[in-house]
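Hi support team,

I've been running sequence recovery on a batch of backbones for a student project. Most finish fine, but this one hangs at about 90% for roughly twenty minutes before it completes. I'm not sure whether the input is malformed or the queue is just slow. I've pasted the structure tokens below so you can try to reproduce it. Let me know if you need the job ID as well.

Thanks,
M.K.
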């Protein structure tokens, strides 16, 4: 089972004449965590319209719930499904790793010198 969590990573603000520190951009991350603690993320960024603000909250009054509400008011009804699908595709994909070149001897760390 995968557990999904929305995180707000950054709020960018603009200084408007009568509304200081008005949030104009939200960076977010939707994280999927499976039962083995393997995680994959969908990173997103959402610009906000600051031209027509109906109700203004000062920056200090903002809560995570308010900011998430702004995102959900902008997103289509299927945006959560889109993010989940992208994350599920990453869980289903083969794991890609790096390997040392076969023509070079393996690297052995130098012993610690006291």
């Amino acid at each position: 089972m995968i557990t999904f969590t929305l995180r707000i990573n950054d709020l960018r603000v603009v200084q408007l004449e009568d509304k200081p520190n008005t949030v104009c951009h939200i960076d977010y991350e939707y994280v999927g965590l499976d039962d083995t603690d393997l995680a994959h993320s969908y990173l997103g960024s959402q610009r906000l319209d600051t031209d027509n603000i109906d109700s203004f909250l000062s920056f200090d009054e903002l809560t995570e719930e308010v900011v998430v509400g702004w995102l959900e008011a902008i997103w289509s009804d299927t945006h959560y499904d889109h993010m989940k699908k992208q994350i599920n595709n990453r869980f289903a994909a083969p794991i890609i790793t790096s390997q040392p070149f076969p023509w070079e001897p393996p690297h052995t760390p130098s012993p610690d010198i006291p």
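--
Follow-up from support: It reproduced on our side and the slowdown came from queue contention, not your input. The mean pLDDT is 93. No action needed from you.
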